Known about the structure:
Layout: H1 2-12, H2 17-39, H3 45-73, H4 116-126, H5 135-141, E1 151-157, E2 163-166, E3 169-173, E4 179-182, E5 184-192, E6 197-205, E7 210-214, E8 219-227, E9 231-234, E10 237-241, E11 244-250, E12 252-260, E13 264-272, E14 278-283
Parallel strand pairs: 1-7, 8-14
Antiparallel strand pairs: 1-4, 2-3, 2-5, 5-6, 8-11, 9-10, 9-12, 12-13
Helix pairs in contact: 1-2
Amino acid sequence: MGFMRRLRVSRSDPDGIAEAETIGLDAFGAEAAAERLAETPPVSQKARLAIAVLAGLVLIEAVPTALWVRARLRPPAVAAPVSAAALPPAATLPLASCEPAASDAPATASGTSVPAATAGLAAKTTTPPPGAKPAAAAAAAVPAVERSMLAGSVAVTAPVPMQVLVRGRVVATTEAESFMLPVGSQELEFVNQNFGYRARRTVNVQAGKTATVRLEAPAGTVHINAVPWAEVWMDGQRIGETPIGNLQAPIGSRELVFRHPDLGERRAAVLVTLKEPARVSIDLRKK
């Protein structure tokens, strides 16, 4: 309707023909644009959300890149030089400030002054934390006890080297001059497996003193013979003429000397134990 009206007007007005044509073309263009908009489907809510997310990601990536570029393009800062004139001479440094004044130094119980720094350190180290006992009280509660006040020594004399056991545990050997044991009554066991010797003794150990234990050598059995015959000495003591049987001798290593008026003298050693009788036989005719 509007188009026809403009067409009639243009016919009646020759001067407005060009304007009418322009208006008519504009009208057709507007109508075509409206039809295209009507045909274009509206943008969905998911599409808008995706666009917003993409824009945010681009912004997140762009900000660090811009900061990095800015840092690279910024010229490095140069520290201003310090002139030697700005520093005071060494002679004018206040060295006395490192030492406390006589009036500021606290005095000790003896009347001598203590530097402030040292006094502060002493106060810091000697001040006990809340609830803690003072050092003097702790020292008084646990007095220093010498080892001699808790144990005593034991010296053993034995015919052969022996192990010393207390409650089945080896604590020393008789080869030592002495050994330490706790104060009190101690039951000691002395053992030598080679000689088959075992003995028990009870010793009273006193603090700071040495208890002595003497073990006598038990006797073992020895059988001695010589061909044709000989007088026999054991450890320098004459024991008789061969044959000699069931001779009782202290355990240990014993020295025998065989003497014959025509065949001369021969020496031998015998080990006397408690396990079994020791047997010694010598032929003086053999050199």
